[in-house]
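[step 3/7] fold_predict: job queued, chain A
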Amino acid sequence: MKPITHYWQNLNIVSVSLFPISLLFCFLVSIRRIFYRYGLFKSSTSSVPVIVVGNIYIGGNGKTPFVVWLVEQLKLAGYRPGVVSRGYGARKGSWPRQVNLKQEVLLFGDEPFLIHKSTQCPVIVDPIRSRAVEKMIQDTDCDVIISDDGLQHYAMSRFLEINVTDAMRLYGNKLCLPAGPLRERMSRLQSIDYIVYNVSRFQSETLTRRLSKKEFLMDYEASSLRPLSDKDRQSMTLLDFKGKIVHAVAGIGEPQHFFKLLEHHGLLVIEHPFTDHYEYHSSDLVFDEPHPIIMTEKDAVKCQSLVTQESMADSWYLPINAKVDSLLINKIVNQLQTYKTVS
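[step 4/7] structure written:
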């Protein structure tokens, strides 16, 4: 039986049959947003600007690389950014929690851990993001906060909203859950400040229409392959593996994107897809054929502690850097300066 996501890219008998439920879902989401807008539901206030990076399409769209890019660009502009996140996949317990690289990744979730590891900026996780924002303001000197996801978390006030969209899938059949992949109606995009399309070079399709002033493209740039366990071992490039068979491991929103990236660089890929935020075990990374293992950086933060067997010695991860038009960060910085003036 095919998963429901199979039917989300176009109109078909399954999506049409679920359309009445989708209408109810859209209605409830819209009513909830209206209640927050008119103060019937209370939204928190913040003394520093909050930039929400999310999407109306459920699942992975490339938010994490974009958040890392945004943090680094804000640092270059002289700001002290912090990041808040729900901490999807983190172990239950007391909240909020500030990410600490010396502690276990499962206390925080793979994406918050990776963001902190990549940027060294404060990252606080809490299912109630507005509470994470309060904690960030109390415990750090951050002057701008980025929310990794949380576009629909209206209890958290926000200064700017950015929607990240996969350019290959776009918005599927443009229907709300469960008939389609959308968390909110397409009309929600009209109120979002910026829309960023993930158009990685290894994708077979990209946008062909003219972009509006609030739309921007994001590309990926593959970095050097880094060893999963031996930190003293020399880094490799994808060119070093060209023409070689490799085990490709990806537990991300769209594993095929990672596999296509490796194939684009001439690697012969044996695919090992896992669900997003998958919690790995040593047995998941033991394969019959003794080929090198290459995984995403997001998977690596969870798998480094598992590399104890000789068969996994030839294991690597591939950092990905986002590339976005500099005009976007210029616009964001200009608006942040306006926020300072008003406040």
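[step 5/7] annotate
The longest strand covers residues 215-222.
Helices lie at 13-17, 19-37, 63-76, 110-119, 129-139, 255-264, 297-303, 326-342.
exit 0
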